[in-house]
Amino acid sequence: LTPVPERPALRRRLASSSIPVLRRTKRALDSLAKNIEHVSARDIANIAAQDPLMTAKLFALVAEKRSSRNATEITSVEGCVFMIGVPPFFRAFANLRVAEERLRSTPHALRGLLRVVRRSRKASALSWDFAHWRTDLAIDEIAIAALLHDLAEMLVWCFAPALAQQIEVLLKKTPGMRSRAAQLAVLKFELPELQLALFKLWQLPELLTAMMDSANIANPRICNILYAVNIARHAAHGWDDPALPSDYEDVARLLNTSAAFVKSQIQSGKGLSKGRTVEEESGQTAEGAAA
């Protein structure tokens, strides 16, 4: 096995400001920058919110710039852009690094990263839909928390691809093995533990950080996120994944409906609330995650 970096060293590396973004994100932002006088905070947020890496960078920058006297935490992507300002945003992110370029020599790692990104976008869309059904007042924050739920896994693919691949191989060789057990075997710690440490280091909003802590599983918002993440993860293996029936039961209990209804709406791509696709309802599309 590749020698495992010491935990503090790996944490510092993953917390680096050089975290890359998706190529499509940089291209879209570069296009907006050409006509900056007509760009709004929402225009930028619509692009940034499709990329969990860019979203994390944005929240980290806002936390860095936020005055210690300002106790109000910003928990939306658009609010972050509004707080920074449009011209300062483009100055701050003028030299974004691109994940596809960073991982050009390791195509397997790039595929691994993009798989997690697509899964996270799907989890975010599902989480938004569940929260909409529940009429939760923190619907946008729930969607962001789901989008960022597997951020540490993305960063390992970016900065320690050999370790990420070892985890993947171990899971394939050991059917039924839990992801956390594989992470512990390879990294000597679990990725959720690392992610919470990173969020605290970046000083991300407490509301979002709290939603990442699965220890409080009794909280409906955390259930909302975890169930969406579970379905996105298992559905990535196909609709015949044996874990999905249990996932549908979990969602049905949360939403006080039937597992059959949850299954039919999710597998058809429709939102549970209005019959539109989950991606349309949340403003997210599956297209372009790997572009």
The SS-based structural class is mainly alpha
Give the integer mean of the pLDDT values. 86
Distance between the termini: 32 Å
Q: How would you describe the shape?
A: globular
Largest sheet: none
Secondary structure tally, helices: 18
Percent of residues in helical segments? 55-70%
Looking at the chains present, what oligomeric state does this protein adopt?
single chain
E-strand count: 0
Helix and strand sequence: HHHHHHHHHHHHHHHHHH
Taking pLDDT < 50 over at least 5 consecutive residues as the criterion, the unreliable ranges are 1-5, 275-291
The radius of gyration is: 19 Å
Work out the strand percent.
under 5%
Describe the structure.
The chain is mainly α. 65% of the residues lie in helices and 0% in strands. The protein has helices spanning 7-14, 23-33, 41-48, 52-65, 77-84, 86-92, 99-102, 107-133, 139-148, 151-159, 161-173, 179-187, 191-202, 206-211, 220-235, 244-255, 259-267, 278-282. The two termini are 32 Å apart.
List keywords for this structure.
291 residues, 18 helices, 65% helix, disordered N terminus, disordered C terminus
What is this entry, summarized?
It is built from 18 helices and no strands. By secondary structure, the chain is mostly helical.
